Amino acid sequence: MVPERLFSIDLAHACPISGQASRPMQNTLEARTSVRIRVHYPANQGKITLRTDADWDQDVQPIGVSDEGRSHTFELFPDSPFVYYKALLHAEGEPRWSAGPNRLATSGAARDHDSFPYFQPSGAQLTPLEELSSEHGTWSIRAFLPPGYDENTCHRYPVLYMQDGHNLFHPEESAVGQEWDVQDTLHQLDIMTSIEQVIVIGVYPSDRMRDYTQAGGGAYRQFLVETLVPHVNATYRTLEGPEHTAILGSSLGAVAALDCAWSHPEHFGMAGCLSGTFGYDDTLATRVLEGPRPELRIYLDSGWPRDNFEVTRDMRARLVRAGFVEGIDLVYHAFPGARHSEADWGDRVHLPLQYFFGHRPEARSHAGAFDDPA
């Protein structure tokens, strides 16, 4: 079976997308602040230029090209703190605009902006359900691959492992007929240029109560770190290492996510916990206060009333006692009126996605350009 195509993305044309901000009046202090953009694309496909919202008919030439021809560096001097741009590929015939939305770059960021364009109209993909067996048991997975995955082989991606894979993408797979619609959230965040593109692995529980509690949690954790993570890294173009790898879940899946990251920070550097059922059948409340503290970034949230509001507040307090600092390696939110439901978790999953994979202005891009596969 071939991967399922999700969004139909048209080739954008030479004009800003409707709804993007109009430019402010020129500020002389900011007017000539430069923006550096590095465009990565497989070599020997043609010449790469940029066009911007300053003049969608004018090509911007690169100031440098890497020796192997896969990275083109551009320096722009916008008249405002931001610029929208698109890459063009000049090969035979007319130049081809990159597919997908106009990209946003801001002049205040202390890093270069990395861009991985693709020029064939394509959408995100969902792979067929795949069954993986190990000595610890058998689980099924489904992968979300971002738009342009097949074409731009320079692009490697961070990875998010999500629990309850049956509730993420398709309503007909969900036990309650309501999915998170993760693919649509990722699409919107990509249009906004708010996060790095990310591969999502939905893991389907074999027995939810066993996998996500002490009864079978050890076997499930071992499957994740010994079988699934190596399989994903070998199958897809991933950025490896805990700084590029997150795990996330809701309810008991949130407990499993934090438990796995706490036990294996060498694999998972980020844990997202939505409405975590802490204390139901786990020892995390005592473990987080017993050293050493792993290097993690943790997202916690819940609704109110009920929705595990109190135990999430308690877990937040324990993590602060353990040395986590809110706003740096710990984020906590409570949502008045939010319910313990797939729809509510889907509505707010953009928050941990932006925390884990967002374009942080103080950091270099998480994205990576690597050699084309042999």
Description:
- This protein is of the alpha/beta class and 374 residues long.
- The chain folds into two domains: 10-121, Immunoglobulin-like (Sandwich), CATH 2.60.40.10; 125-357, Alpha/Beta hydrolase fold, catalytic domain (Rossmann fold), CATH 3.40.50.
- Helix content is 21%, strand content 27%.
- 41% of the residues are buried.
Major beta sheet summary: 10 strands, mixed
Q: N-to-C terminal Cα separation, in Å?
A: 24 Å
CATH topology of the largest domain: Rossmann fold
Beta-strand segment tally: 21
- Name the CATH architecture of the largest domain: 3-Layer(aba) Sandwich
Q: What is the element string, with H for helices and E for strands?
A: EEEEEEEEEEEEEEEHEHHEHEHEHEHHE
Ranges where pLDDT stays below 50 over 5 or more residues in a row are 7-16, 25-31, 362-367, 369-374
Let me know the average pLDDT. 89
Radius of gyration: 22 Å
Counted by DSSP, the helix tally is 8
Q: In which range does the helix fraction lie?
A: 10-25%
The CATH homologous superfamily name of the largest domain equals Alpha/Beta hydrolase fold, catalytic domain
InterPro entries: AB_hydrolase_fold, Esterase-like, Mycobacterial_A85_antigen
Protein name: Carbohydrate acetyl esterase/feruloyl esterase
Organism: Saltatorellus ferox
Pfam family, one: Esterase
